[in-house]
Amino acid sequence: MPYFDKHIFICNNERPADSPRGDCTKKGGKEVREKFKDELAKRGLKGSMRANMAGCLDVCDTGCSIVVYPDNVWYGHVTVGDVDEIIEKHLIGGQPVERLVLPRVPKKA
Known about the structure:
Structural class: alpha+beta
Shape: globular
Distance between the termini: 35 Å
Radius of gyration: 14 Å
Number of domains: 1
CATH superfamily: Glutaredoxin
Largest sheet: 4 strands, mixed
CATH class: Alpha Beta
Number of helices: 2
Order of helices and strands: EHEEEH
Strand order of the largest sheet: 2-1-3-4
Strand content: 15-25%
């Protein structure tokens, strides 16, 4: 079974067009995932890092949303144009892209 140094989950949840929360697919989720997959492969990182499509990450209003494990770093409002920066600064360099990091919220009891 393969183990990944980094696992990137990109929300591709879809909601009805009239949903007040919106969804990450309409906010570019599929394109963001494809860009991650392409760029990880170009950099030779495909075996050590994986970009996966995720269902709802429950932060729809901040879509396109992604989470990076094992770092537990959540990003919001991610666009295709942000992917290279996330790969270079965070996935390779170890420093989250602060302007995209979602604030931590207390866990519900």
